[in-house]
Amino acid sequence: MPAATVLPRSFYDRDALAVAPELLNKVLVAGEVRARLVEVEAYRGADDPGAHSFRGRTPRNATMFGAPGSLYVYFSYGMHWCANAVCGPGDTPHAVLLRAAIPLAGLDVMRERRAKARREVDYARGPGSLGQAFGFDRSFDGVDLTRPRGRVRIVDDGTPPPARPGVSTRVGLAAGKGDAFLYRFFVAGDPHVRRSGSGGADRRGGGARSDQ
DNA sequence: ACCGGGATGTTCT
DNA sequence: GAACATCCCGGTG
Q: Quick one: pLDDT band at residue A208, thresholds 50, 70, 90?
């Protein structure tokens, strides 16, 4: 098993739509907590009415306009802290929302933080839950994800992204949700991915594409 | 399993 | 004052 390597800034310095599917199966690390990303969403600056950066820079979204490879954390619905990886290219305000992950280490800490979650599968299922499991808050906004011993980082442990990720529209948006915005990517069939829409949870097998 | 609503507070119009 | 990249609980079938 190769040593885990921190993703370099060049990984993030691209369109969020290119970065998002490649973040699947990477490992998010903060202190002793580690979890494998299985669901993400791309948000793309000026062309994306669903993005926080669509209407320009504000105090809240300033981190999105900063260096690719930064962590953009925002407060959602008066209750939850959600985390994004800032992307590019250059200073283009793109980002990838981290929506769900498989707990790998630091399970005691996660269980304590996620007291309401009964099952391990729910520790980091959904962006608010993921933020709570990792202990994110305002002080994490702007953290550099590319530092090998940084406070938060994303590493490659040798697990490749799925060859054919699940793809769908994004969750919970009033704007930017048509078929032109297939910006959500997930590991098809993984139980840690928040179920969407109707029907069965566990679609698996050869093809794997649009929804679960 | 599916749906409806309340919690809770920052951000922007 | 409305909207919001959400979560959880309780009702119903």
A: very low
Q: Are A30 and A98 in contact (CB under 8 A)?
A: no
Q: Which nucleotide is nearest to A97 (CA to C1')?
A: C5
CA distance A190 to A65: 32
**CA(A147)–C1'(C10) in Å?**
45
Q: Which nt sits closest to A195, CA to C1'?
A: B1
- Whether the model pTM is above 0.85: yes
Q: How far in angstroms lies nucleotide B5's C1' from the CA of residue A122?
A: 22
Listed as ranges, the nucleotides of chain C within 7 A of a protein C-beta are: 3-9
**Mean pLDDT estimate for chain A:** 90
Q: Calculate what percentage of chain A has a pLDDT beyond 70.
A: 91
Amino acid making up residue A183: Y
| Alpha carbon separation from A35 to A23, A68, A105 (Å, rounded) | 12, 21, 7
Q: Which residue is nearest to nucleotide B10 (CA to C1')?
A: A78
